[in-house]
Amino acid sequence: MRLRNIPGAQDAILESAYVVQEPEKHKGSWGDLFEKKQPLHIEVGMGKGRFLMDLARLHPEINYVGIEMYDSVLLRGLQKRAELEQEGITYPNLYFMRVDARLLPEIFAKGEVDKIYLNFSDPWPKARHAKRRLTSRQFLTRYDQILVPEGKVEFKTDNRELFEFSLEEVKDAGWNLDAFTFDLHHDAQMSEGNVMTEYEEKFSSMGNPICKMVISRGQ
Ligand code: SAM
Fold first, then answer.
1. Which end of the chain is more exposed for a tag (fewer CB within 10 A), N or C?
2. What is the average pLDDT across 86-101?
3. CA torsion angle 189 113 127 208 (round to 10)
């Protein structure tokens, strides 16, 4: 997702209380930032953040961080969150950050993150861009550097080619494929408790099957 550049987006992000500024300063002490010290789940490439806002309300026992690299996209999330807070819906267990996920190991210490969500990640179809895909072996190495030993990555997409590439990367990188489906919405077990993302709603309403995998670090 890349929205047109929005004038003032950068300043709004810098001033926002919802956004963690200089996130690398919290490496090793993310628990101190939140009201409660509890497990930390992150979404990489959160877009406008609706998925995490829904999860944060459903799971007050989890802390969440949403990561997005474009100002214009993150700004839309901040605006939505501000609207909801005006209606009295608050998210004490949710922060956002504007950062490229390549920097994850500089932001979180080893074992600081319990779960990583990747939802409808950009496919980067050209072979020479494969390492930019958020399920490439290069990104799996970064996730390995921040997850707890039993940590999991959950990945959803409607892009079958990206999903098949990801299955190969998981195998080659020696991760465990704990569960997967090529049609999440018709898989009773895997769809239990599923929270839809904005892209998931859009693509499933067009009739696209949604693929999902749950992976964990190999021992
Ligand atoms: N997860 C949302 C959903 O499912 O509705 C948004 C999906 S959108 C297609 C993917 C988002 O990931 C975009 O907003 C893009 O800017 C962001 N993104 C892609 N690569 C990223 C990276 N390396 N670091 C942070 N965000 C990234």
1. C
2. 96
3. 30
One-character DSSP codes across 42-88: EEES-TT-HHHHHHHHH-TTSEEEEEES-HHHHHHHHHHHHHHHHTT
| pLDDT tens per residue, range 133-177 | 999 999 999 999 999 999 999 999 999 999 999 999 999 999 999
Query: How is domain 112-219 classified at the architecture level of CATH?
Result: 3-Layer(aba) Sandwich (3.40)
Q: Which fold has domain 1-22+43-109?
A: Rossmann fold (3.40.50)
CA of 46 to the centre of ligand 1 (A): 5
Looking at ligand 1, which atom is closest to the CA of residue 118?
1
Task: Report the binding-site residues for S-adenosyl-L-methionine.
Answer: 43, 68, 100, 122
As given in the structure block, the two tokens for residue 51 are: 């998925």
Q: Quick check: ipTM above 0.85?
A: yes
